[in-house]
TrEMBL record:
Domain Gfo/Idh/MocA-like oxidoreductase C-terminal: start-end pairs: 132-331
Domain Gfo/Idh/MocA-like oxidoreductase N-terminal intervals: 2-113
PANTHER family xref list: D-GLUCOSIDE 3-DEHYDROGENASE, UDP-N-ACETYL-2-AMINO-2-DEOXY-D-GLUCURONATE OXIDASE
Annotated family: Belongs to the Gfo/Idh/MocA family.
Annotated organism of origin: Jeotgalibaca ciconiae
SUPFAM superfamilies in alphabetical order: Glyceraldehyde-3-phosphate dehydrogenase-like, C-terminal domain (SSF55347), NAD(P)-binding Rossmann-fold domains (SSF51735)
GO MF annotation: an example: nucleotide binding
Alphabetized InterPro entries for the sequence: Gfo/Idh/MocA-like_OxRdtase_C (IPR004104), Gfo/Idh/MocA-like_OxRdtase_N (IPR000683), Gfo/Idh/MocA_Oxidoreductase (IPR052515), NAD(P)-bd_dom_sf (IPR036291)
Name used for this protein in its record: Gfo/Idh/MocA family oxidoreductase
Amino acid sequence: MLRAAIIGLGTVSSVHYAGIKQAQNGELVAVCDIDETLKTVYPDLPFYTDVETMLKNEELDVVHICLPHYLHYPITKLCAEKGVHVLQEKPLSLDYQEGVCVKELAEKTNSKIAICFQNRYNATSQKLLEVLSEGSSGEVKAIKGLVAWHRADQYYIDKPWRGKMDTAGGGTIINQAIHTLDLMQLIGGELTACKASLSNITDYEVEVEDTAVANFTFAEGTKGLYMSTNAYATDSSVEVEVVTDQATFTIKNYQLFKVDFEGNVESLAVDARAEGTKSYYGPSHATFIQSFYNAIEADTDEYVSAEDALPSMLMIDAMKKSSREQRTIEMEEIKNDKSKNRCARIHG
């Protein structure tokens, strides 16, 4: 059995706890958080307030990092350099260049680093990617991703790091809708350019955007339209639409539909619903965790790696730069921008 620990006992940690409990080859043996009052959440487990102390005292195989975004890379680095495998919550990093640091870290250590894009494992996502790869519907012409959710002012007041650019790296684009960006790039392939506008249509006193609109261009000529907001009245179903030569495919309300050009509608897949969690997390955390544990035991690369997660950070950085400079951004500009040099900053 793999010995696992959770670092960070915030909102999403309970989903990881449930996934570890369901895993056939893993057990939770320790937890860590700086808030000592959370010790009562897992009263039967060793509780630590310091990651280094936990790594020293516990014989761990894998850690689940459920921390604020700005802590993802430094804590991943600390664990990986101790030879512990890492399952890190999204996002990969604060920005693209820091994401490159994580990729390089995975390459130079013996630790596997997985990034939790669990929605890739949804039945609807899997079926859509399968159908598109078969090619019977023709080339992908367009991809649309829509996320209209609600976040009250209290969401940022309760955890102020969420509203600051230096600690969150963005708002809706990196915290709520990054899974949609990830699926869009899986479908569209290599990204070449982006034109975007980020804004705030709520009156919250935050640095990060609550609304985003972007056009993406992919290398094979596919066009992508992305829209997300935290300013809706509720958490509406995420929608992903793919237009091909022969049909339109839509994921919405946990189902995948195919509509041909004669108007015939076919349901291709339905997602399972995860019990005891927020529906918008998706149903596949447990599947993702089990898959990563299997990859650790079998020593395979069948998981979402730091390299796999880099395109989502490329999209996020391109949107921020495009909105800030009010122009189309070529993706090579983001890849070649070494100005932030986050690896050096963290290394001291």
